[in-house]
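I am writing to request your help with a piece of structural work I have in hand. What I wish to show you is a protein chain and, alongside it, a tokenised description of its three-dimensional fold. Could you please explain, in whatever detail you think fit, how the structure tokens follow from the sequence? You will find the record immediately after this paragraph.
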Amino acid sequence: QLQLVESGGGLVQPGGSLRLSCAASGFSLDYYGIAWFRQAPGKEREGVSCISNSGGSTNYADSVKGRFTVSRDNANNTVYLQMNSLKPEDTAVYYCAAGLRPCSYIRVSYKFWGQGTQVTVSS
């Protein structure tokens, strides 16, 4: 079965950190760019960060720039999103997605999606 599985979400206080993982099973991520999206209640799903298949190119939404870092370990078929200095407005379900096109936040560009992991930032 071809799938992406996110993990690492949870409840954290403002200013805290979390590291999300996106693991692929049934296929290799070597040729896929990966994007992280998030969706807060009542809001549209928005792009957060993306990384090229080689890891040589990354991009971040303005709202997370300087706080989030995306990386990948192709040997372990996993992509990570390190989230620091978390804010209540970062609360959302976070999704990873894999696609063969260059890094973007265009959802239809991504072929595989994970089921999402909840991140809640609250005191």
About this structure: The chain has a mean pLDDT of 96. DSSP finds no helices and eleven strands in the chain. The two ends are 39 Å apart (CA to CA). The CA atoms of residues 99 and 109 lie 6 Å apart.
